[in-house]
Design goal:
- Three copies of one chain form a homotrimer.
- With about 140 residues, chain A is α+β, with helices and mostly antiparallel strands.
- The first copy, chain A, is built from three helices and eight strands, in the order ββαββααββββ.
- In chain A, the strands form two sheets. Chain A has a five-stranded antiparallel sheet with strand order 1-8-3-5-6, with helices on one face. A three-stranded antiparallel sheet of chain A has the order 2-7-4.
């Protein structure tokens, strides 16, 4: 069994961004030199997530608008009594989920025809990390 | 360490279906001949998911109705400007999440008393796949 | 490759509770004596989940209130025709997701600065279990 661990670092210009990381993950799998296994991709900050879906601008717009509807930014969250203003980002991360496990088959990410992996930032403009751990043989 | 990979293929008759795949997964674990490990089950198409919950008709009805409330089918999604009409299916998949990891203990799926695994199709009537990858020893 | 499996048992006093289990998971990882690998934490009962977020009372209050808004307790769920009264708990578990995979690096849980792991009980006051399976080397 082999393991290989890398960390991706993000410092987005916008408060909210969707960043397609599929190619970067494929490179990590190449460096790991694993033929069969699994690749964990997990946002280490609690206002960001990982989303697997379509690379299509309209859908990405719909997705962010929909998250704003289900978990709106509002001043009156209890969390804001601590001085924070990002409670909605914590809730959005929960809806999206913060991690994914990608199968590795024959040395490649074993994804469906439209599956793309996105880092979803909901409270950016500061340094954040994602852990990528590959395990297999 | 051993790995074993299979693909399940679905071509549902309805646009939306919940299909209990627990018995099929148990058979794959038997074929994998792994005593201790993990079994990744991941929908490879971005309008389908994997749900672990109760095999009870009323609850399955509530679940689909509730998803329609939180992520309604509507004509005015931006994604539909591409000619697609299934933006709600992408959002429903996000709520349900598209994958699950099942523990394998003593050669069996290590599930709770009511845990059943469902393939959740939100835009069916065409061929779709689920990857099942077992890893362990 | 080594695996190590333990079960956490909960019997909450309240119907809904958030229980921080990060320290207990760290102890399991110590007992597993694994340097590099993954730790699956999965609620075995279908009205409970696992949530990774901030240990902050205001946010936990916001989180439960928000789940009640998105998946309200109501008498008229179809599931309740079976005699049950907890359909909302099944739906809340779905939103939160019922499992997480924690990376293990250099013998420790490899978590971000604010990541804490919670058992989220939505229909408590009875015995329930969480499976924790560590896999690595």
């Amino acid at each position: 069994m082999t393991t290989h661990t890398e960390y991706l670092v993000f410092n987005t210009r916008q408060q909210r961004e969707l960043i397609n990381i599929t190619a970067r993950l494929a490179e990590i799998v190449q460096r790991a030199a694993i033929r069969e296994g699994m690749c964990l991709v997990s946002a280490m900050h609690i206002t960001a997530g990982i989303w697997v879906n379509d690379e299509e601008d309209g859908l990405k717009h719909d997705f962010l608008e929909w998250l704003d509807h289900l978990a709106p930014a509002r001043p009156d969250y209890r969390h804001h009594q601590t001085g924070e203003d990002n409670a909605d980002a914590h809730l959005k991360r929960t809806l999206v989920h913060h991690q994914v496990i990608l199968p590795i088959t024959a040395g490649q990410l074993d994804l469906g025809p439209w599956e793309q992996v996105f880092y979803t930032e909901f409270d950016g403009r500061r340094k954040k990390r994602v852990v990528v751990k590959v395990l297999g043989e």
